[in-house]
Structure formats: C-alpha cells, structure tokens
Give the backbone structure.
Amino acid sequence: MSVLRQEPLAPDACDHCGLPVPAGLYDAEAEHQFCCAGCRAVYETIRGFGLDRYYSLRGDEEAGLQANPDGGSFATFDHDAFQQRHVEELPGNLRRIELQLEGMHCAACIWLIEHTPRVVDGINSIQVDFGRKRAQVVWDPSRVGLSRIAETLDSLGYTPRPYVGSPLDEIRRRESRRLLVRMAVAGALAANVMLMSFALFAGMFDRMEAEYRELFRWSGLGLTLLAVIWPGRTFFAGARASIRTGVMHMDLPVALALAAGTIWGAVNTVRGAGETYFESLTAVIFLLLVGRYVMQRQQHAAHDAVALLYGLTPGVVHRVQRNGSLEDVPVEALESGDRVEVLPGESIPGDGEVQDGRSSLDLSLLSGESEPVNVEPGDRVFAGTTNLGSPLRIRVDSTGAETRVGRLMNLVESFARDRPRVVRLADRVAHRFVLVVLSVAAATLLGWWWVDPDAAVENAIALLIVTCPCALGLATPLALVAAIGRAARKGILIKGGEAIETLARHGRLLLDKTGTLTEGRTELIELHGDRDTIRYAAALELGVAHPIAHAFVEAGRERAGAPVACSGIRYAPGEGVAGRCEGREVRIGSATFTAPDGLPSRAAGWERDVIASGLSPVCIAVDGEVVSVAGIGDPLRADAAGALEALRERGFDLGMISGDDPRVARAIGRTLGLEDEAVHGRVAPEDKARHVQALRRDEGSLIMVGDGVNDTAALSAADVGVAVQGGAEASLSAADVYLSRPGLAPLVELIDGSRRAMGVVRRNMAASLAYNLVTGGLAVAGLINPLIAAVLMPISSLTVVTLSYRSRTF
Amino acid sequence: MEVLYILFPLALLMAGIAVVAYVWAARAGQFDDMETPAMRVLHDDQDPDSGKPKAP
C-alpha cells in the first residue's frame, strides 16, 4: 500500500473517488470532474477546510469509494435524551462520544478525520479506530454542538452514527486482553526455556560440567512451573469443565501431559538424573494459546464488522404537544400515550392506533408482503411500517421492546439461545484422540513394567507429552480463521467457524422471496396494449407516494418523451388515480375503478396473463376505455435462477418461504424451477421461525437465507442464517453470515468456500495425526528423547500453519 | 564459567522486566487496536504543501 504516492487520475475519472465520470456530467471546461453531486460536495468541503493534502496522502488504489454524505440534519444529536444515552461527561467540562463512521477505507481517511479539530472550533480531539470503523470524539459543549461536529464529519463523506455498545463488549475486551497476556507470557517463557535446553542439548554431545547442567535444569524447572501455573491454567480450567460435563475435550490430555510432565521433570531435576521435557511443555502451552487467540480475534472482528452495519441513525419523532404544536424528539424519548404525527415516507415509531388521517402503509418490514395496506382512524398500526400516503396522527400505546417488532427481536434471542450446538468435527476427533492416547499410554506403562519399571513411567510420560495435540489444536482454528479472513475480503462476513462447518454439509436451503430472491422494490415489468399510455400514467402518478405510482414514474422516466401536463388529479385510496391529460380523461388503477361495467375481453385476457406471471395487474383507461394493462411486481434478481441451479447441483434441497400470497409465491417459484410443495406462502414472521424449526427437526442441517426484519427470527432459528446485501439491520444481527455484495452469486461462493475450508481442516488433521502416530510410535518403543520431541513439535505445528494459510478457500 | 551465576539471574531479571512492561501495556489496552497506529505514523504533521493549519 503506497500512501504517499500521487499519480494523475485518468482525465475522465472523478477527482474525489476516481470512478469514471458519466458522460452527462463531464464538463470539458472545468478543472475538476466529479461523478456525482456527493463527491463534488465532499471535494469542495475538503478544499474549503484546507485539508487537500488528503488527496496526496491517498494513493490511487485506495480511491474508488463514492462519497455519499447523508446530508441530513443531526439536530437530534444535541437532544438531552440522546446525550444521556450516548455521551460521557469528562472532567474540565468536556464530553466524549464514540461514533461509528461509514465510508472510512484508507489511511488518508484517518488523517482527514483526525484533522477536523483543526477546522472546527471546540473539538478537543478525534481518535480513530480503523479496524472497528469508530472514532472517539472529545469536545467542549460550550463552544460547539455535537450536531455541528456530526454535520462536519458527514460533509467530509463519513456519516456518523452513535455507537451502541453491547454489554458483551467489555467482557470480550477483557477476555481478549487476558488471552493476549497469557499467550505472550507463554511465548517469552517458552523462548527462554528453549535457550536453556539448547545449552543442555549441546552438553549432551560435548560433556557439560554437572554443576552447570544442574543450573540449567533448575532454571528450566522454575520457568516451566511459572508457565504451567500462569498461562497454562487455561487448559486446567478446560479440563475441569471437560470432566464435569463428561465430554472429552482436547484440554484434557493437554492438562494431563502438562501435569505429568512437570511433576516428572521436577522429580528428575531434584534427583539429578533422567530426562526433562521442559521446552516441549512450554512450547505446547504457547502454540495452543496462539491458536486460541487468533480464533478469538477473528470472531471479534466479525462481530465488530456486523455491529457497524446495523448501527442505527437516531430516529426523530414529531410529538404532538398539549397545545397542538409539534416537537421533534428522539425516538427513545417517546412514551406510551404520546401522540405523534407521521409524515409520508416516514416510519411509524411505535405500535398504536390511527386517530386522524387516511393513508396506506408499507408493511413489508413486518409481513414481507409487497402490497401496501390502507388504514383509517381506529385501525391498529405497528412500529417499523412505513407511511406511504398522507400524514397520520397516531396515539402510541407501546414503544421499544414492547412493540410487535420488539417482541420479534426477543424471539430472535430465545431462538438463538435454544439452538442446539453442532457437534463439531474437531470435537469428534478430539474425543476419539483422547481415548486412544490415554489407552495407549496405559498400555505402554503396563507393557514396559515387565521389562523395566523405571523406563515404563519415563516412556508413558514421554508419550503423553509428544502426542500433545499441539498441531491438532491449531488445525481447526487456523484453517477456519484463514478462510474467514479470505471470505471477508470478498465481502462475505462470517461470524464464526461453526457456520462454515454446517454450510459445508448437504442439507436444506430455505430462501425468503421479497428482497432475497427478488430486488425488493416494485417495478413495471409487463405492459400489454397501447404502450404510449405510460406517459400519462407517469404524469398522473408523479405526486403519489405509493410503490405502484413510483413504478410508473420510474418507467416513464426511462422512456423520456415530452412531459405531459395533467389537471384535476384525484386520488382514490386503494383504487387508483384519475385526471385529465392532454385533454383526455385518464384513469389508472383496479379493474373496477377503470372499467365499472366490466373489462372488455381483450383487456381481461391481458389481466389473466399478468396474474399468471405472478404480477399485480393495473389497468389504464383513456376516455373510458381500457387500452392497456400493466404488470407490476418485484423483479427477480438477475442472478437468482443461476444461483439456485448452482446450489441444486451442489446437492441442496431448495425451498422458498414468503409472507406474500401463496399464488404469487408459487408463480415466482415456478420461474425459478421450484416445486409447488417447496414454496410456502403467507407465512407471518413469527411462524417463519416455527416453520424453520419444524423443517430442521426432520431434515438435519438447515440454512435460511433472508433479508428483512420479518426473517430475523427464522434466521436465528436455522442452523445457519445468511443475510443478503441490503438487508435490514436486525437481520444482520441475527444472521451468522452476511453477504455484503449484491445478488445471490456470493451465496454459491460461500458454499464452495466453506467446503474447501473444511477440506483444509481435514488435511490439517490428517497431517497432525500422522505426526502424532510417528512420535507416539517412537515413544512406545522407548526411542524418544527430549531433543527429538523438541524438534518434532514445532515442525508439526508449522506444517499446519502453512497448509492453512497457503490453501485457496474463498 | 562462574560468571553464569551472575549473568543468569541478570538475564532473567531483564526478561522479567520486559514481561511486566508488556503485561501492563496489554492491560492498558495498547494492543486493542492493531491497525490505526500503524497507518497514523505515515502522516507527517509538518505538511509542506498545505502550509500552516487554519486557525482553530
């Protein structure tokens, strides 16, 4: 990565992000070119602050991220309820907040962000944590407001959101530091013991004076005791748990070998004769702790990456005050009994009842259904749904965790808790390995007892030490960690190694329809009859916040023609729109709205065609006659069919689950080659999870792929939940895997990569077991000595490390 | 060779100091973020081309 190099970008590349400039925006006269308004705004802000060195610090290869400032107001950041939740008071009348920043991608970004205190008066310091994409801001509230700081960061292209830590954060941080300390101490001790052993090994060949031999042995014993008691206690704790639960765990033979080896070495040191294995013992502790630390760090990194993705921008609510005026408050300040106003395009902040206004709501977040639903005073509405039509006044009766969405989230947690643990390959191997090692050690002890009782103990202990599953302990974590790291670079975030193991198996794969197999937005897909009517439709629907209206407007924009002026536009909720365009009476909507006397046979035929392809029909009538029928629907993702075919080839039993009407779901399923029995329609979010549980019980491993809030419970109920790009924040937190690239092709990559990763795990295990077979055989034969043990131990671990990091998985 | 009796404890003492310093650093969170400081050193605060920082 060259940070200090600057090469001229291609002449038609955006000066901010380096992406090609669209032909329409290219201005031959201008000195600088931009691919979008966002990049221009950010470029001008950076220049205006005198921070243009950002562009020379940044190499070209780090460019390529389009600036996307939110541009919104961050006024809620100054609100008391917000500050109480996220801000920490510091001495000296300062305040501190931890913000998550979107769009940070290179070293120059760190420079830019950390230089904002120079341009905004009142910020004391900003410290970036690049890996977690967070920044700690310390500021003086009497000199600058937090909203102003947030706006500045946003205008630089890094949209800030408050970091909402989880109670696990502190536990994880402490756990990680403790493991780091233990690992490094074990490493330091192992290295020192190794040096002393080298002296002893050298002394084997050219006679060392007994006096110095004793010195080295006693020093080695001291350091080994320290290593076993301090970093080594990890394994004794694991062994204790293993005995208590009755499950054979790798920690058991390790603890046994450590205890027996240390005691035996101590006895031999005191009596001044016999072998000691101090260097092997300390090396075992160090290498096994390395494996653990690497695994833990990777898991935390995945959690952090996901935490960034589902950080929420604080929501603003328009609360109606006693005197009838509106007051903007953060959503956290909302209480049961409050009245709020919800404008078109906003989402409803809590469960409640409509008091005033008529509108239609987009319930897709809750039900997964793409069709909007009409509401009027007295109807119940749920948090998280979006108002599409006109302003609504709502009396809120439950907020936060009490709402239906909140309860759904609790369901997620309970499903995740009840999920049975997969018996992992490593555990199964460890189980057998432990039994074999212990019985062979017992046999060696008994067998040698007849020959030479003194050698019997010696050989049995040598066996325990040399078969210490060092490489075996590293085999699985290293292979999985390497795979998780490679996957992350390809935009596939995997939260744990267990998911990889389950994904590599054959089983059942259940996909959500809306937003997963489809694009998740409404589009005009078919148009029968007079295609020219689209111009009228687009003009009439321009001001309507309904998804169907949006589809017409988009379609009209694509075939740009002379704009049509319309007058007398009337909107009939749930039915359609009517108005006069170019002197003709145009009606768009349902069959009954456009043709009260029944559809003419030609139009009825079109309508049947549209329904047969799983779309919703919308009729367009001009001067009282239906001249065309449009098919509106959610288009399939371009790569959906190909991806499903690839998954079928890989032995998966595919199914689809949807909140939509069963007929629509089946029609979509058929175009993807799914049997009608594999398609489940009209499934409520709570039932989705139960469905997944039932299927899992009789089918073995089950993978659920989804995107919406309505899928979250199902994602956590499945053996592995996969959230696709564009998914809701909540689904990301529930899923084990998140595909951050659009489309379903990454899903196939995920399966292939997991299978290759498990192949590496098996190869690693085979390699380490082979080493154990050789060393174990030598020990049983009484041919092992500390020198051979000290050489073989690191070689076997090195083999495993090389195999793990050199294999192509993702 | 008697010098070993002095050098040996001395070497261990030095190693011990290093370990203590390390443990302190790890517990103080010095190793929590392994990426950012490595990138931060590349930024020269005496930037020659943009002149003096604007007045705060």
Notes: The interface with chain A takes residues 1, 4-5, 8, 12, 15, 18-19, 22-23, 26-27, 29, 31-36, 39-40, 42-43, 47, 49-51, 53-54, 56 of chain B (CB under 8 Å). Residues 1-30 of chain B form one domain. DSSP finds two helices and no strands in chain B. The radius of gyration of chain B is 21 Å.
